[in-house]
Amino acid sequence: MTARSCPDWPHLMEIAPELQFKHYTVAEAKLPAEALVELADFPLEAVAICADLEKNVFYATHTDPKVAEALRATHWFDLREWSTSGPGTEPGR
């Protein structure tokens, strides 16, 4: 576990053990262009997203609401969506 690891990791491991959620700034996360357009006035150095960057899944509880809303319009998944109707529901995930 690193300093960036989400403090809710025990709970998150119960929902999606294959994902690893960490906290990032908007700039570090390298979000899709369509999300960045929506965040034009948002400070890119603000720690504002809790996510598994490799799987493009964010944890809305620890993600700034404005960032979460911008991500919902992209190929990224909210953890709830990922684990109930998205790739996290596929057998053998």
Kindly summarize this structure in a few lines:
By secondary structure, the protein is of the alpha+beta class. The chain is built from five helices and four strands.
* Topology as a string of helices (H) and strands (E): HEHHEEHEH
Beta-strand content bin: 15-25%
Strand order, main sheet: write it out: 1-2-3-4
Through-space gap between termini? 22 Å
Which structural class do the helices and strands define?
alpha+beta
- The 3D shape can be described as globular
Major sheet details: 4 strands, mixed
- Low-confidence stretches at least 5 residues in length (pLDDT < 50)? none
What characteristics describe this protein?
alpha+beta, globular, 15% strand, single chain, 4-stranded mixed sheet, 33% helix, 93 residues
SSE map:
Elements: H1 9-15, E1 22-25, H2 26-29, H3 33-38, E2 47-52, E3 57-58, H4 65-72, E4 77-78, H5 79-84
Parallel strand pairs: 3-4
Antiparallel strand pairs: 1-2, 2-3
Task: Give your account of this protein's structure.
With 93 residues, the chain is of the alpha+beta class. It contains five helices and four strands. It starts with 8 loop residues before the first helix and ends in a 9-residue tail after the last helix. The mean pLDDT is 90.
